[in-house]
Amino acid sequence: MATNSSNGDTQKATKQPPMPSPLRFSKFFQVIVADNFFTGSKDNLKKWIGHPRFELIRHDVTEKLLIEVDQIYHLACPASPIFYKYNPVKTIKTNVIGTLNMLGLAKRVGARILLTSTSEVYGDPLVHPQPESYWGNVNPIGVRSCYDEGKRVAETLMFDYHRQHGIEIRIARIFNTYGPRMNIDDGRVVSNFIAQAIRGEPLTVQVPGTQTRSFCYVSDMVDGLIRLMEGENTGPINIGNPGEFTMIELAENVKELINPAVEIKMVENTPDDPRQRKPDITKAKELLGWEPKVKLRDGLPLMEEDFRQRLGVAKNN
Ligand SMILES: NC(=O)c1ccc[n+]([C@@H]2O[C@H](COP(=O)([O-])OP(=O)(O)OC[C@H]3O[C@@H](n4cnc5c(N)ncnc54)[C@H](O)[C@@H]3O)[C@@H](O)[C@H]2O)c1
Ligand SMILES: O=c1ccn([C@@H]2O[C@H](COP(=O)(O)OP(=O)(O)O[C@H]3OC[C@@H](O)[C@H](O)[C@H]3O)[C@@H](O)[C@H]2O)c(=O)[nH]1
């Protein structure tokens, strides 16, 4: 199996970074959110709309964006498999053209840019847990490739802009993250199980159910991303919670915590579903002083509360 040393000499920039934007030294933060609302919702931003230092733009990252900024958190991309597979050509354009546009913006204004890459760059991993040095086991022509190969190209573009143009880059490889305000119909496993348990519907475990994932609570993720952006390491750095669960274990936890009356039902899976996934977070601990604080059994009830409010179903006890 192939491994590499991702932060060796070959990754060094050959050029000085562009002059940082004067905004970097500004006293006040301003936040501009650009989103095409394909999977996102304005509801999640309502507390900020109208704030004088907040701006929301309906914008698709596959088009150029001319704004003045000093840091770019490049998150735009559908992330749930059902959404990224819905229009795979658009997903790959978002990853490739979208990342090129964000890097072009970073270059023009001298901004630092952080890419939210993914554990899916490891594909169906043959090394467990996955360190950043693992090159992955990815099907280049499968139904998930628009996303996993798209993110791999996005990482390549980040390093090429870094080496060739001196752009200050940061790459986070995010492992499954969940939390309040996720789209109820997002389709990912945690939101599916929580919505199903609240509605009293069977929890749909896709076969075989022994596949594993490691779930990180959103506040831990945000803390990790900010530390990466503010720190001195380009990454890639795994950010995720190493607690590893089979999908049957996840369903059993949701059942016990949210609705012991629901049934667990085995259903068909989709092609190329990774069989195991768990981050090696040694680098995040050493380089960012980061590790997750919220355990799955503490995070699930926080998400339940938000989902109950939005679904209008109170807890009976
Ligand atoms: N949540 C996870 O488990 C996870 C894991 C690995 C990587 N990531 C990455 O983190 C980022 C955010 O993921 P998320 O879970 O919040 O997903 P999400 O689907 O909830 O949010 C993605 C956002 O990007 C927007 N978007 C999609 N395509 C766009 C485009 N072409 N132009 C502008 N906006 C666009 C959507 O409308 C949405 O607001 C994504 O890049 C995703 O690949 C997430
Ligand atoms: O209802 C469901 C949904 C999903 N699953 C299973 O749960 C596991 C996790 O599936 P999810 O759809 O939540 O997401 P995946 O882990 O496949 O991909 C995820 O991880 C990496 C990120 O980059 C992606 O944004 C995210 O989609 C899979 O094994 C899937 O088969 C179920 O058992 N039941």
From TrEMBL:
Composition bias, Polar residues = 1-14
InterPro entries (UniProt xref): NAD(P)-bd_dom, NAD(P)-bd_dom_sf, UXS-like
Record's Gene Ontology CC terms?
A: cytoplasm
EC numbers listed for it are 4.1.1.35
Keyword Transport annotated: no
Q: Which cofactor does it need?
A: NAD(+)
Q: Which Pfam families does the UniProt entry name for this protein?
A: GDP_Man_Dehyd
Q: Where is this region: Disordered?
A: 1-21
GO biological processes: D-xylose metabolic process; UDP-D-xylose biosynthetic process
Q: What is catalysed by this protein?
A: UDP-alpha-D-glucuronate + H(+) = UDP-alpha-D-xylose + CO2
Q: Which residues form the NAD(P)-binding domain?
A: 35-301
Q: Which UniProt keywords apply?
A: Cytoplasm, Decarboxylase, Lyase, NAD
Q: Which Gene3D superfamilies match?
A: NAD(P)-binding Rossmann-like Domain (3.40.50.720)
State the compartments where it is located: Cytoplasm
Return the broad EC class: lyase
Q: Name one GO molecular function term.
A: UDP-glucuronate decarboxylase activity
Q: In what pathway does it function?
A: Nucleotide-sugar biosynthesis; UDP-alpha-D-xylose biosynthesis; UDP-alpha-D-xylose from UDP-alpha-D-glucuronate: step 1/1
Its family remark reads:
Belongs to the NAD(P)-dependent epimerase/dehydratase family. UDP-glucuronic acid decarboxylase subfamily.
Annotated function:
Catalyzes the NAD-dependent decarboxylation of UDP-glucuronic acid to UDP-xylose. Necessary for the biosynthesis of the core tetrasaccharide in glycosaminoglycan biosynthesis.
Protein name per UniProt: UDP-glucuronate decarboxylase
**Naturally occurring in which organism (per UniProt):** Mucuna pruriens (Velvet bean)
